[in-house]
Design a protein that fits this description.
Layout: H1 3-10, H2 13-16, H3 21-34, H4 37-48, E1 53-55, H5 56-59, H6 67-79, E2 83-88, E3 91-96, H7 98-108, H8 110-117
Antiparallel strand pairs: 1-3, 2-3
């Protein structure tokens, strides 16, 4: 089996063919949102919270930041397509969008895939 055939079978879409400009822009927005340590921690807190969702009231005590600052960071994560939210009474509950994490994972697995081909 040639390296080209192996790459097609085992590797992420990033390795198989160049991504489109639109796809690159979408991925860049997600990666940019995660490039901030606070937002990366927020995503981790939500993802690891019991039931896969967390209320702002559960998240806020983990940070030495004001509520408006935390809300801003959560908004950036939502706009990047990484978090979803649902209002219940006076609180907003956040959950991770699994498909978004899978998209990022596929791109990040590209380095591992190139080692398998070599």
């Amino acid at each position: 089996m040639s390296n080209q055939e192996l790459a097609t079978e085992c590797c992420s879409p990033l390795i198989r063919e160049p991504i489109t400009a639109d796809r690159a822009a979408d991925l860049a927005q997600m990666f940019k949102a995660l490039a901030d340590p606070v937002r990366l921690r927020l995503l981790s807190l939500v993802a690891s919270h019991a039931g896969g969702e967390a209320c702002v009231c559960d998240i806020s005590p983990a940070f030495d930041l004001s509520q408006p600052t935390i809300s801003h960071h959560l908004k950036v994560l939502r706009e990047a397509g990484l978090l979803d939210c649902e209002r219940r009474g006076t609180w907003v509950y956040y959950s991770v969008i699994p498909a978004a994490l899978q998209q990022l994972s596929a791109v990040l697995n590209a380095a591992e895939s190139t080692q398998a081909v070599a």
